[in-house]
Amino acid sequence: MDFMKKLTKRREFSSIIFLIVLYVIVGSVNPKFLESDNIMLCLNGATVFTLCAIGMAFVIYTGEIDASIGATLGLSAAVVATILKNGGSLSFAVLAAICIGLIIGIINGVGVAILKVPSIIMTIGMMGIIRGFSYVYTNGQWVENVPSSFKALSQKGVEGLSWLYISAIIIMIATNFYLMKTKRGHYFQAVGDNEDGAIHIGIPVNATKMISFILSSVFASIASIIFVSRIGIVTPTSGSGYEMQAIAACVIGGISLSGGIGNMIGATVGALIMASISRILVFIGLSSNYNNTITGILLISIVVIDAMIQNHNIKKARRQRLVARTEIIAEVKGKEETRNEAYIEK
């Protein structure tokens, strides 16, 4: 019973229940949705979102936001596709993508952690710059004719589940262990929970924020490799809107936008929910054009609910402190009255 109580109190538990209920409801409307082939398509389709959400989670965990990951993914994808199209090696393409993510992450990290530019302003500015580079790099053209052998990588797997998604799950487990079980992993939670307190106890706040932005951009660049393998075509606008999808995945998965709360399991479940929306719309007979609308509604709803819960917890904590202080005052007054009575009797 204690285990179940602890489980139900975990923030990601509600997102898992939401995912199950959502699938059951859609399955009742259209039973074909729950067929194993379609479930595998939903899982495989969530690979890119999962990696973006994991990277975004590091930033949100520190109480910041990264609006540039969609543009980072798009530029990295264009570079990867161009290299492979021109006969370059996969290892060189992967290295180039990671370097792009590393450079962008360092710039974002310096702007936010060192120069103290608000993260939303810094990363929106970087989004515009990176998107401009994408147009210049591609000359406004699509990058096509990616080798079929590379595109085939996204189709390989076990029982319909691609190796790429399996790899994403392994990465999620590793990063979740790092966050939850290591000293340096706890730095992210401490910075997001109470930055001033983290500074006072000697946690390198600026370095932690720098690392979070670097990881966010690098994960977006890694996701771009899978994006190219799955889609096979890169446009100058590729990756547009992925930042909102990643933020929504984290929030739906139980990671608080105020920082310090949540884990990678929730972000991964949230990514699966976001990746499933477009397919759900098709199966219930609605246009996939509603995808962004539903994403926005979910994001706003979860943020409002999270804010209400936090306000409730703050008020509850204040009441508890007030009650405790009142009890202490009453106890002190009782002791003083006892001493006075004893003095009078003497």
TrEMBL record:
Membrane-related topology note: Multi-pass membrane protein
Q: What top-level branch of life does the organism fall under?
A: Bacteria
Transmembrane regions: 12-29, 41-60, 67-84, 90-113, 120-140, 160-179, 213-233, 264-284, 290-309
Cell membrane: is it a keyword of this entry? yes
Keywords recorded for this protein, A-Z: Cell inner membrane, Cell membrane, Membrane, Transmembrane, Transmembrane helix, Transport
Task: Pull one GO CC term from this UniProt entry.
Answer: plasma membrane
Compartments where found: Cell membrane
What InterPro entries does the annotation carry? Answer: ABC_transp_permease
Q: Which GO terms describe its molecular function?
A: transmembrane transporter activity
Q: Does the keyword Cell inner membrane apply?
A: yes
PANTHER family, alphabetized: ABC TRANSPORTER PERMEASE PROTEIN YPHD-RELATED-RELATED, AUTOINDUCER 2 IMPORT SYSTEM PERMEASE PROTEIN LSRC
How the protein assembles, per its UniProt entry?
The complex is composed of two ATP-binding proteins (LsrA), two transmembrane proteins (LsrC and LsrD) and a solute-binding protein (LsrB).
**Role of this protein:** Part of the ABC transporter complex LsrABCD involved in autoinducer 2 (AI-2) import. Probably responsible for the translocation of the substrate across the membrane.
Q: What is this protein called?
A: Autoinducer 2 import system permease protein LsrC
State the organism named in the record. Clostridium estertheticum
